[in-house]
Design a protein that fits this description.
two-stranded antiparallel ribbon, 336 residues, globular, Lysozyme, 11 strands, alpha+beta, single chain, 2 domains, 11 helices, endopeptidase fold (from Nostoc punctiforme), seven-stranded antiparallel beta sheet
């Protein structure tokens, strides 16, 4: 559906499309979620996730859906730089030992969600048995083993001290722990909310970048040191995910603090379905996302790029590792 929109000129003649009143009035969401799930799952995979998510007591449909969201964003053609393949991101050796013929067609195809999703659940159940005696949170240990291997979890007596694995566990647990569908849990933001998010972010244009800066209340003093060695501790402002936390708080949605966790708490959006207010993520995989911006239309986003810059409009291609676009899921019934 095409919408009425107004143009805003930015910089050297670039035009960013801002959502118009006609679109706001006509747009609506139809997330088509399985009632047993509070995590958004594409309709064509809901039955698969529901069935596979009951393979063993340690695995639930929500946990499986959250893992698949983190691994591939439900992209059956996903392939990581290290060779993980398919919707569940199996490494070839793991698939060889753990892949199953889920649809009974006589083949074990890592690229076929009907095989890969049941295989992912069965593999999680196998991991649960392997790490059942490891101290600590059982679900965290299972997820950590899926990411880093059971040997690492056993060796460290729990979640290994690997930044990627710790972020992986935290992101999936956060998404899987959303409340059930008693109210509007699992719905994605509306078009009107997206416009409010963009308007809020635009008010922050020109605000200094501060590593670790920004929260639901607005800009704040940074808390840590940037990868480039500059401290944010004496700068009041936003980093990339701090800006998105602030903008989404204006519509009653509490986003996780890191960009990777925000991706895990959002529903992937196809390029042709991008909408004002969607989040744009950069990184080589779901667990290594390092940057996030807010889509404003016309191939642009608002973001807090890096130390030494300010909140600004940036082209989506300003970074070469665009990973994907996603729309936050929320459990609030508040509408703006």
């Amino acid at each position: 559906m095409r919408s009425a929109a107004v143009g805003v000129t930015i910089g050297a003649g670039a035009t960013v499309l801002v959502i118009g009143a006609a679109y706001l009035q006509a747009a609506s969401d139809n997330p088509a979620l399985n009632l047993a799930l509070s995590v958004s799952v594409p309709a064509k995979y809901q039955e698969l996730v529901q069935d596979a998510g009951n393979t063993c007591p340690e695995v639930t449909p929500n946990l499986l859906a959250s893992l698949l969201t983190q691994e591939s964003g439900f992209n059956p053609k996903a392939k990581s730089p290290v060779g993980a393949r398919g919707i569940a991101q199996f490494m070839p050796s793991t698939w060889e030992s753990s892949g199953v013929d889920g649809n009974g067609d006589g083949k074990r195809d890592v690229w076929d969600p009907e095989d890969a999703i049941p295989s992912s659940a069965k593999y999680l159940c196998s991991i649960a048995r392997d790490v059942k005696d490891v101290p600590g949170n059982k679900q965290d240990n299972i997820l950590a083993a899926y990411n880093a291997g059971t040997d690492a979890v056993k060796r460290y007596g729990g979640v290994p001290p690997y930044k990627e694995t710790q972020n992986y566990v935290r992101s999936i647990s956060s998404l899987a722990g959303q409340p059930g569908k008693g109210g509007k849990a699992g719905t994605v933001i509306t078009a009107r909310q997206g416009a409010t998010v963009v308007n809020t972010a635009q008010e922050a244009l020109g605000t200094e970048y501060s590593w670790g800066g920004g929260n639901a209340s607005g800009p704040s003093t940074g808390t840590c040191c940037s990868p480039r060695g500059r401290s944010g501790a004496d700068i009041r402002g936003f980093d990339c995910s701090g800006l998105t936390v602030y903008a989404y708080a204006k519509v009653g949605i509490a986003l996780p603090r890191t960009a990777a966790a925000q991706y895990a708490a959002s529903k992937p959006v196809n390029p042709g379905e991008m909408r004002v207010g969607d989040l744009v993520f950069y990184g080589s995989s779901a667990s290594s996302i390092h940057h996030v911006g807010i889509y404003v239309g016309g191939g642009y986003m608002i973001d807090a790029p890096r130390p030494g810059t300010k909140v600004r409009f940036s082209p989506l291609e300003s970074m070469s590792d665009l990973f994907g676009v996603a729309r936050p899921i929320h459990s609030t019934s508040k509408e703006i």
